[in-house]
Every structure is written in C-alpha cells, then in structure tokens.
Write a structure and sequence with these properties.
The protein is an all-alpha fold. The protein is built from five helices and no strands. The longest helix is centred in the first third of the chain and has 34 residues, at 31-64.
C-alpha cells in the first residue's frame, strides 16, 4: 500500500471508531455521552475533509491536470456528508436520539461508499500520480494539527 493510501485509510478508521462510539451512546440512550462523542467525530470528519480538500485534492489535480474527475465527485460527497452531519447535530440539539440514529444510518452508508471509492481508487491513484507524496502527507498532518501547511 502506498503512503497516501495508508495514511488516509488509517484516518478513515479513526473517524469510523469515533462514529461508532457516538452511535453506541445513542443506542444506549446516553444523550450527554452521545453529544460528546459526536462532537469528537464531527471534528475528526471535518479535519479529514479539510486535509483532502486543501492538500491532497489540489496536489492530485496539479499532478494529473484533472479537476473534473474523482476529486470533484469526492467534494460533492463531502458536501452530502456535511449536510447529514448538520442533521445529526440538529437531532442532538433537539434531544431526539431516534432521529439521530436514523440520520446516523444514512451517514454510515454514505461513508462506507465514499471510503471504498477513496481507498480503492483515489488514494492509489494519488500514490501513483504524486512525485512527492511525503510532502502532501506532511501538509495534511499540519492541517490535522490545526496549522496551515
């Protein structure tokens, strides 16, 4: 597995773990814990999206000359997931764990489909296209830490 594929797939697993913790708290009807775990998950997802949108995707587009292909689809899917994340936050603000669990099911399906596309197509394509994938990973790590690349 290439460097981008490994780094970003590991981050998918980190986000998945946080998502599962929030969903488990919701299923146990533990609203305060669900809120805390959801905030952690939402923050991790936004960090992941930012790493891709501000570092990986532009580097891939520069290397391939293609900004209408897979990165465009991934950005559209990020927007869909952000909308479901907002609906999850609204459900928690309304103390509605049933709505939260319903929206969480929708998000789970979106994330699974999205992650497969990235892990099986976009990340391996990035590993092949980028001449210096380590520099892109470093830029993503800086974004993840909250500092500009």
């Amino acid at each position: 597995m290439g460097q981008v594929t490994t780094f970003m797939s590991d981050d998918h697993r980190r986000c998945d773990h946080l998502f599962a913790a929030a969903e488990e708290a919701a299923a146990q009807r533990d609203l305060p814990t669900c809120r805390t775990r959801f905030q952690e998950f939402q923050s991790a997802m936004e960090q992941h999206f930012i790493m891709e949108e501000q570092a990986l995707f532009p580097a891939f587009e520069d290397a391939t000359g293609n900004n209408m292909g897979p990165t465009r689809v991934m950005r559209l899917e990020h927007q869909q997931m952000r909308e479901v994340l907002a609906a999850l936050a609204e459900a928690l603000a309304a103390d509605d764990l049933d709505e939260y669990l319903g929206q969480a099911e929708t998000l789970l399906i979106l994330m699974q489909q999205h992650n497969i596309k990235e892990e099986q197509m976009l990340y391996p394509m990035s590993d092949r296209a980028l001449s210096n994938s380590q520099a892109v990973i470093q830029a993503m790590q800086q974004l993840q830490a909250g500092s500009p690349p």
